[in-house]
Write a structure and sequence with these properties.
The longest helix is centred in the C-terminal third of the chain and has 26 residues, at 162-187. By secondary structure, the protein is mainly α. The chain has one domain. The protein has ten helices and two strands. Strands 1-2 form a two-stranded antiparallel sheet. It has helices spanning 6-20, 25-33, 39-60, 63-67, 70-90, 131-141, 146-157, 162-187, 193-217, 221-231, and strands at residues 116-117, 122-123. Belongs to the GDT1 family.
Length: 235
């Protein structure tokens, strides 16, 4: 451990995150959001949440789970998923209607953005677009992912290099998230936008149900499937 250098830890952290990012639910959330919102804004909000969580995980480690009981975060995440599924269905174009800009956010009749914080019903200022609710969604949605467990483990192993861990993880997470968002943003144009809305709503509906099942019965379909696939890999 004494032979480790700052740059070495950067590469270790980046490699560890790249190994677990495929199949993480937050990447699927980014893909779904990018069919409706500006992908750069989605990644900016998601990246802010990732950066904040990573810093907290590095400095506080497993204390985070004691301060923020997982059941409350899971419940809040499920509620946000339901809200986004509803918004996607509500704003889906009518059959035969001309395509509109899919990254324009949730629009009022006057063409202004109308994004509200769940429960509080507080309207996010138009200049922020969907940044705040997407940030909240990603902050809650990332809780419990393997990416967080990797960070906690690395922080315990390389306590002398907290900035290297943070830098390495951001170098992995942000580019992957950006590529993911841009791909699905452009990919959605090749299909009927109405169908893209319903597909995104179905995605959020699934995760909402999966979170509810996890809270109520302690079983997650998504985590079970991902775990089975990972166990079947030859490495």
């Amino acid at each position: 451990m004494s032979e480790a250098t700052w740059l070495t830890v950067v590469f270790i952290a980046a490699g560890a995150q790249l190994a677990v990012l495929p199949g993480e639910k937050v990447q699927f959330i980014i893909a779904g959001l990018s069919t409706r919102f500006n992908p750069y804004m989605v990644v900016a909000a998601a990246g802010t949440a990732f950066a904040g969580w990573t810093a907290v995980e590095i400095w506080l480690g497993q204390t985070v789970t004691e301060l923020l009981p997982g059941i409350y975060l899971d419940a809040a995440t499920a509620a946000l998923f339901v809200v986004f599924a509803y918004l996607l269905v509500r704003t889906a174009p009518e059959p035969g209607a001309p395509d509109k800009e899919p990254a324009s956010g949730v629009l009022t009749d006057g063409g202004e953005l109308d994004v509200r914080v769940p429960v509080l019903d507080w309207r996010v200022p138009n200049k922020m677009g969907g940044f705040l609710p997407i940030f909240a969604l990603m902050a809650f949605g990332e809780f419990g992912d393997k990416t967080q467990l990797i960070t906690i483990s690395l922080a315990a192993q390389y306590a002398a290099f907290p900035t290297a861990i943070w830098t390495g993880e951001m170098l992995a997470i942000i580019p992957v998230s950006m590529a993911n968002a841009l791909f699905f943003y452009r990919f959605s144009h090749a299909f009927d936008l109405r169908k893209a809305h319903f597909a995104g709503a179905a995605l959020f509906g699934f995760f909402a149900a999966d979170f509810a099942m996890s809270v109520l019965f302690g079983f997650s379909v998504w985590e079970t499937v991902v775990g089975a696939v990972a166990a079947g890999l030859p490495f």
